[in-house]
Recover the amino acids of this structure.
């Protein structure tokens, strides 16, 4: 179930190229959630890891998580 939830939000991720040629990705529904990587794939993996950490933390704290 968690994987399906994460995949739904990863489909909404927005990426941009940085001046140094790296990438930064974010998901608007999770305020302040960003990840960087030297390549787009590295950035995507880092963002997915950060999203999973954020969701698990929110669940542990009893915070409401956004609906996909």
């Amino acid at each position: 179930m968690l994987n399906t939830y994460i995949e739904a939000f990863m489909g909404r991720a927005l990426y941009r190229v940085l001046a140094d040629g790296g990438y930064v990705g974010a998901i608007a529904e999770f305020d302040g959630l960003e990840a960087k990587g030297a390549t787009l794939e590295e950035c995507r993996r880092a963002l997915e890891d950060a999203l999973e950490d954020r969701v698990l933390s929110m669940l542990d704290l009893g915070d409401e998580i956004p609906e996909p």
